[in-house]
Design a protein that fits this description.
The protein is built from 2 helices and 7 strands, in the order E-H-E-E-E-E-H-E-E. By secondary structure, the chain is of the alpha/beta class.
């Protein structure tokens, strides 16, 4: 039985661009772990653990195939419009303007963006979020 969620790992081509992107979302660099043919850069949110692992495979020159299984990771932000504006200088644009998922006004605004390697990130407005669930039938 799992005891603790540790991290999400994504493989990146340009570690500096990836760190700038995640730092713009509030992540802090935490450390580096070197291997023979790769290294990991660890990042975390203030007050939390090292929950993001950026893996750099030495010699990798082609973009990674993201496949069809990965969809997105989700992050809360205090102000979705301000966050999107802060990402514009990095060339980051949302897939579409912020919206209420499924047209449900009872849910916070969300927007999807992509990091430098194409990994999708869901931004959830409001700074705090409990996964919504409809009552059981």
């Amino acid at each position: 039985m799992p005891k603790q969620y540790v991290h999400t790992c994504v493989r990146v081509l340009d570690p500096e661009a990836s760190q700038r992107f995640y730092e713009a979302l509030g992540f802090e660099p935490r450390g580096r772990l070197n291997f023979e043919t790769a290294y990991n850069l660890y990042m975390g949110l203030p007050g939390g653990g090292d929950v993001l692992e950026l893996t750099v495979n030495l010699g990798q020159e082609e973009p990674y195939d993201l496949g069809t299984g990965y969809n997105h990771m989700a992050l809360t932000v205090d102000d979705i419009n301000a966050t999107l504006a802060s990402l514009e200088p990095l060339g980051v644009q949302p897939e579409k303007p912020p919206f209420h998922p499924g047209g449900r006004e009872d849910l916070p605004l969300i927007a999807f963006i992509a990091d430098p390697d194409g990994y999708r990130i869901e931004l959830i407005d409001g700074g705090r979020f409990d996964t919504p669930q409809d009552p059981a039938p």
